[in-house]
User: What shape does this take?
Amino acid sequence: MASKAEAKAMRERSVSLPSLPGRKGRVGRAEVRVLLTSTRFVASLFWLTIVVATMLFVLPYSERNTSPVFPWFVVMSIAVYLGHRFFPYEGYHPWAFSLLLLATDALVAMMVYLTGGSRSALSLLYITVIIFSSAYFDLLETLLFTTVTCAIYFAPYLYEQMDFGTLKEMAMSVPVYFLIALSGFFVISKAREQEREKKELSDIIDRADRKNRELSALYAASIRFASTLNPEEIIEVLEEKARDLVPLDAMLICLYDGDGDLQVRLSRNVVDEESFLSYQREANPLYVAASAVLPVTISRTGEDPRFDPFMKETGFASMICVPLFASNSVIGVLACLSRLEEAYDDDDARVLLTLASEAALALEKAGLYRTTLEDKSKIETIINSLTDVLLVLDREGKVVLANPSAERLFGPREGIPEEPVGETFGRAEGEVEFREVGLEEALRAVLHEGRQVKNEVVLKADSTTFFQAIWLPLQDPAGSVVGAVVILHDVTDFVELDRMKSNFISMVSHELKTPLTSIKGFVRLLDAGRVGPVNEKQRRYLEIVLRQTESLTKIIEDLLDLSRIEAGIIEVRRERVDLREVAEGVLAGLENLAREKGVAVFLEIPDGLPAVAGDTERLRQVFTNLIHNAIKFTPSGGEVRVRARKEGGECLVEVADTGIGVSPQDLPRIFDKFYQVDSSTTRQQSGTGLGLSISRELVAAQGGRMWAESEKWVGTTFSFTLPVWKAVQTPVSDSEWRSVYPAEGELDESSGRGG
Assistant: This one.
């Protein structure tokens, strides 16, 4: 495997952002113990000069140049020179340096011996050894080695006779040696501290410069990410910037597919991509980084036993994997690989994680943009394919979007946007009539009140076209109305079918009414015995025929009333009507039905209730329909209450029962023609489903309105209003008048129900 120094050199060659010596985790320099950068050269040259000078200028004149010590002197000189020449001063190796200084002390001792012993001036070289020790060692070690040097300084005592004066002079040098050692140590320590501070400052500046370069690179990447919505281009930028920021021999960029598996989107210098992704997930750094949402850094083989098989199989020495984390999930992984050990550290993980996050957000944005375009295309296709006219309005009621069907109805689409919807309708070829709810009322309801509105729009041109208009509010997440959608559905065919149905019903009803009247008359003659005696059995059969004939006549009368209502020619009278009197008459006629059903009926109309303006016969028909329905759908033991009271200029009438009730989904439709609630209970009761529809229209024709409230299995209350007789401003005689009925939307301001 490559060394740490080679990894650092590789970084310096391959990365555009220069490597910094102060970077943690990188190949770092230990503290320099000796300050001079040329210590090795100076030390080796110094001792070489001393030795050569001694051999040339001193030893030839020495009396001991023939001593056996001389060969050892030569050997020791060479050893000391080589030791200082190749000693690793960049690191701290106290034992090795101690041996080197001991050898140097021995060399000085030999030089002193060869040049006169205690009289030799070369003993001053011991000071050099002490200075070297104070420059390299800590204080305690310096004092210890100074003691050893002083002991060697007294070596001449072993091979020559010295008097007391000589020993005294030598002993006086010992304090000087210690003073030099202490002074040298403190001076060197202070210089070393300054050097350390200088180095730390330099490291800080270098790190700041690196951070600045990293930020510049990340800023440039973010600019490029923000300028494109192409996923392939985003991945290429990610690959380029990752290669700039960290050293690598290979790279993989993988994204998750819909099944939760990583798929390679970019590969550089990876021979077998499948081996990276097919490896078991719990031991695969790519999947581990994605699942943990944290970088996985492998500096060397054996650092994490989990990944050893993976690293050996892929053939790389170090690897770093960072997740591509978008807004709320990991969408992929970036993996950088190197064949050198110690190629990646925590700083690499940090900067790559930042880059990967920027890329993930850009990829997510590109995906959202692509999805938005697809959704927009689908919506445009749907809108353009609609046969119904569709208009989208802004908050001011101006058209901002129209589909091709609107263009066919209102003219070229280019002229539609940004004009008020009223002007858009005015561009149609023909007269536009809004029925039930006017244009301004519909706009106010949908844009200001946020209510859905339905009305009928009639286009009168060469041929009349009927549209059902649906006005829908558009709301933002806060619930505020920001616009509206108007849909015009062509119902001309349905209107024509409805007209044909009404004509058919009217014709059939008229044709059936005459023979039924004859049948009813002849049955009564037979029952009265006018054509001969009738026994009890025959009389019972005739009563059955009479009841069925009357029931069929009632159905025909309902159908005729319905056809008149639809034609707008129903006749009502406006006269003074006593509601209590009308209600009492109806209850008297239904008393037998209530008794048979076991239902109690209560009349709660006060005597002093004001009279109303209406048609007595039509109001009797309304009361009959409502009370008959209430009794029919109330089980035995239940109650029906008929109430009335004055409210402002109207009288409010309520028919409440404790019957089976109507479900919320059926309640809005109970006033529809022919509609009957589909349940086992209602199927047991006969009826056409026209009574409630006719009753509401009759009430509306007399200036009132009708609605219903119900709760399933609790009961139902039908309510209607009629104007008080005194509230009629212009007296009207008891003459007939024709009424064209208002639209449903104008009548049914409360909830409606059909039955």
Q: What stands out?
A: Residues 1-37, 728-755 have pLDDT under 50 and may be disordered. Residues 164-226 form the longest helix (63 residues). The CA atoms of residues 430 and 455 lie 19 Å apart.
